[in-house]
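Morning. Coffee machine broken again, so started the prediction first thing and wrote up yesterday's gels while waiting. Chain of 404 residues, entered below exactly as on the submission form.
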Amino acid sequence: MLDLLRDRGVPIHRQHFSWTELAQPPISKLDADAFTRIRVILMSALESEAVHFDHAVARLYPRLHRHLAVIRRIEHYQQTLVAGLLPPDLSPLETTIAVEQAEIEITAAVARDEPDPSVTAVYRFGLLEDVDHLYRFAALMDRLWGQDANTILQSYTDIVPGRPTALEHRHPLDDLRHSYDRDQADLLTRLHALTLTALQQHARDYYTGIVPTFGDPVARRLFAEIASTEEQHLTQYESVMDPHEGLLEKWLLHEASEAFNYWSCCEHEQDPRVRAIWERMLDYELGHVHLVAEMFEDIEQRDASEVLGRALEVPLEHRSQRDLIRAVLRTEVGLSAREQELVPREHEAGRTREQRARLDRDDSPSNVVAAGYVWGPGTELASAHPEKRIERRQRISPLARSEQ
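Came back before lunch.
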């Protein structure tokens, strides 16, 4: 159990780092469990979100400059430490596969635990699009280098088509969703929204920044296409949050979401060295929660228990969500959106169809890269007809040669 207001953690004045602590040995690319890497990606995303949020608040709320500066520096150090745990021999595309796996498994776990059915539907909707992104990137990995994405996934996550990426592109006004009511929403609903918003922001930023590392034009277009969908997911998930939450209330929830997720990491981590890091970061985040709670009560003249009023009894489960994902694939792959509602694709908004037609007028890169691709273990090393797999990968080459 995690009681955010009773568990005190480490006071701010005792939260220190050395350079050696900030650059610890990374986890192993192949020997570390995939969920350890998922946790590294998740917490790196949450720390990045915390730093960006704190900077934004500082530009709007000068009264908080001093406290924000102190906590933000600690958050920066935490992000540096956590992000540095990723192995240095992960290629950009392997990291992409890892990021998609993190999005899929964490989104599915959140959707499973989410107490608000309408919010659950939003997460299930986005989940099927992340499933397809993994499939398209796995096809790219196979075509460019003949590598099997499952080497990274470790069989926790299926490599299967989801809602086709080419059909995911919607008008911005059809990516907004109904927000929860801050006075009625369960604390988990509020923490879940922040968790997935941070993860989608992390993916969007990574994909837009990684494009220059690829020379192949189809690969560059694929990243551009999927980064656009990550922006759509970011729009969806942040719109779920009540816009009437004040800055201090949102800051308190940000700190609480970090503490909740570090606690979940502690409860599932099998690597003793990494678990010790999660435990330390949890204690630091609890210290942040209490400092922000004190400011919230002083400035807002409200009790922090109005926001963080109940103990969290069950951590977010870090395990393969294969059964849930397969069930959602069977029933919800044909959905689209119109205004704030999820609807069958035949009822989607005309503006969305027009937007999609403009974007896909030269064909969708996700269609091109996955033409003829069906995942099989070991790629061409295990295929009965390796020459056919090589031929499929080479379909990209004429286009690549003509545009380079």
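The beta strands are 335-338, 341-344. Going to sketch it on the whiteboard this afternoon.
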